[in-house]
Amino acid sequence: MAKSKSPKTKSSSATIGFEQQIWDAACELWGHIPAADYRKIFIGLIFLKYISTAFEKNTQN
């Protein structure tokens, strides 16, 4: 599979250098994971963020 370069990454102001590799990996994964499975991933990440925030609030009190 040929890799296509995104025009967005070329105009980025970030200078770390590995962004293009991460972007290419994400583009490759996009084609292999069905859209219904992304829902599970996002819901899990939202839940982890909620738990993390609640834990931080409880430890500060």
Protein described:
The protein is mostly helical and 61 residues long. Helix content is 72%, strand content 0%. It contains 3 helices and no strands. The model has no long low-confidence stretch (mean pLDDT 75).
Q: Largest beta sheet, briefly?
A: none
Rg to the nearest angstrom?
Answer: 17 Å
Q: Give the N-to-C terminal Cα separation.
A: 53 Å
Percent helix: over 70%
Spans of at least 5 consecutive residues whose pLDDT stays below 50 are none
Question: Average pLDDT value?
Answer: 75
Give me the secondary-structure category. Answer: mainly alpha
Tell me the overall shape: flat
- Order of helical and strand elements: HHH
Helices, by number, come to 3
Number of strands: 0
Oligomeric form: single chain
Strand content range: under 5%
